[in-house]
Amino acid sequence: MNREATLNELNPALERLLPLLRLGDQIRRRVQYPALGIAGLFALWYWGGWAIANNEDTMAFASFAPGPTLAAFWDLVVSGNVWKPIESSLYRVGWGLFYAIAIGVPMGVMIGYFLTLKQVTHVPFQFLRMISPLAWMPIAVLAFATWDGAIIFLIAIAAVWPITYATAHGVQRIDPMWLKVGSNLGANPFHTLRYIVMPAIAQDVFAGIRLAVGVAWIVLVPAEYLGVTSGLGYAINDARDTLEYDKLAAFVLVIGIIGYMLDAICVRLIKRSSYHAEG
Amino acid sequence: MSKGFLEIENLSQRFPQPDSSDLMTVFEGVDLEIQKGEFVCLIGHSGCGKSTILNVLAGLATPTDGNVIMDNKEIKGPSLDQGVIFQNHSLLPWLSARDNVMFAVRARWPNWSRAKRLEHAERYLKMVGLDHAMDRKPSQLSGGMRQRVGIARAFAIEPKLLLMDEPFGALDALTRGVIQEELLKIWSETHQTVFMITHDVDEAILLADRVLLMTNGPHAKVAESVKIDIPRPRERASLHQHENYYKIRNHLVDFLVHRAKDMSLEAQQEAAQGVDPRHKPRFVNPANPEESAPEPATDADATAAADRPRMRAV
Predict the structure, then answer these.
(1) How far apart are CA A224 and CA A233, in angstroms?
(2) Taking burial as the number of CB atoms within 10 A of a residue's CB, which of A269, B111, B231, B290 is the most buried?
């Protein structure tokens, strides 16, 4: 009894403290730990730059180090020269992903829904999936009139698989109970798709898109090495040809930052569409 | 004999077996009537086909034989006239408690304004005591609260027939008691016709007007229709003090423990002899045996008795 009374007295005080404790936790999780990771990466980069600069054989590449790179990055941002290649690259990735989603989601729904289709498509799809998208390059160049078209095709063919299979996985995870609820409420096939299947698989689709964005962003740069005269891949190649290694590294930085941001958007979408209990 | 609100006629379910060309008969020849506003519980051992009967009533399963007529219309598929509460709450996990109910209300009355739907949904959520939790998603609700949302959703569409498949089976005893009382409360306000499957004899006595007893499968039958002769309103705490309580309870338990199996053997013998399996449950009032229909004397009489019109309309 006595102990309980003391606990009850303590409780309000503890409750007032709780938000503060939680805030401390939040700061640690959201700021402190990521900062630690970033600092680690910079340290490694700095050390690498130092090693390159102090080696006679590699001295010529010393401007890969953080100092010159960040200076070049700053120049690119201030002069506005950074935006044009970003725009071209995002345009290609955007369309590539658009086609990948437009083809991959319906295909995934069908594969997840019809077991036969899954079995029929298994071999050809796994076969196609394992071919590097860049292997299609010569064919893409022949098949498409423009370089943009070819690159968009390469991105789409790389990104379609993760989306298809994540969607199929989501469909297979649908609880038959939800469909039962739907049919009990008189849902027709369109309603079922719109109000039960789509929200049920949304988080899996976004997880697939997240993987696809990663793949697309990776494929983009080598695809832009060839032929085109715009985009981040071209900018890197161009900087290499003109021996502007600080600029080259600055574009690598830009690619990393944008990739991170695209990923963060996907994570956001996954979180928003997630309905499973968290923590 | 008055026509029931819900009439089940000669219902049978047979499934193909993996190791034989013969069909396996789960239950057969079930004739039942349920009146409007009646609360009926169905009890039987696992595997006797209780859930199949419920699914047929819900329009989610098609029987091998027989048909079901509700309010002069045959039940052929799922519709909003039949609301179902499943054992596993079956809420849509991406919608809040309120939106889960709203989803059903919108399906029922597509032309209602949003405000009207909202008011309607919230009224039913309040009835099950969820005023404070309407914005929460199912993953943020306890098992009992989820099942309450399921109850609110089913009542909110005001179906002609409410079907419940062991709705409280997954809940702990304390929560179950509380929700049973909430169910009684909401039922006394709406007087829905309810058909409920349960394993719990006490639950059936607390809730039902009538308990249907099913024999074991294969060739299961709905053997008895037991009147729960205890006046309402009933309360869980004082129920067992009523003089009829133990008479009813003993009868139900005796059936489940002994007779469900014995009668199942009889039914299988009869089926082997090719006796017409169509039957009506025998009416029994354990509190007043004189009211009960006489027990069938022999196997042969049993089928004849089933056809005799002296059956009490129940």
Answers:
(1) 5
(2) A269
Spell out the residues 6+ positions from residue B118 whose beta carbon is closer than 8 angstroms to its own. Answer: B98, B102
What's chain B's length in residues? 314
Q: Domain with A114 in it: what CATH number? A: 1.10.3720.10
Most B CBs within 10 Å: which of A174, A175, A180, A185, as the mutation test of the B interface?
Answer: A185
Q: Same structural domain for residues A134 and A101? A: yes
H helix or E strand, kind and range, residue B198: strand B193-198
What's the pTM value of the predicted model, to 2 decimals? 0.75
Q: Cα dihedral angle (A251, A254, A255, A257), rounded to 10 degrees? A: 160
B79 contact residues in A (CB cutoff 8 A): 186
Tell whether A140 and A236 lie within a shared domain. Answer: yes
Could you give the CA distance from residue A82 to residue A60 in angstroms, rounded to a whole number?
A: 24
Please state the ipTM of this predicted complex.
0.71
Amino acid type, A68:
P
Nearest CA in chain A to B95: A275
Let me know whether A24 and A98 are in one domain: no
On whether residue A256 sits in a domain, the answer given is yes
Say yes or no: A177 and A219 in one domain: yes
**Identity of the residue numbered B63:** P
Decide if A101 is inside a domain: yes
Report CB contact under 8 Å: B78, A184.
Answer: yes
Asked if A47 and A78 sit in the same domain, the reply is no
Q: Using one digit for the tens of pLDDT, what is the confidence trace for B17-66?
A: 888 778 888 888 999 999 999 999 999 988 888 889 999 998 888 999 99
Q: Say if A62 falls within a structural domain.
A: no
What residue numbers bound the domain in which A44 lies?
Answer: 2-54
One domain, residues A182 and A214: yes
Report the distance separating Cα B249 and Cα B206, nearest Å. Answer: 11
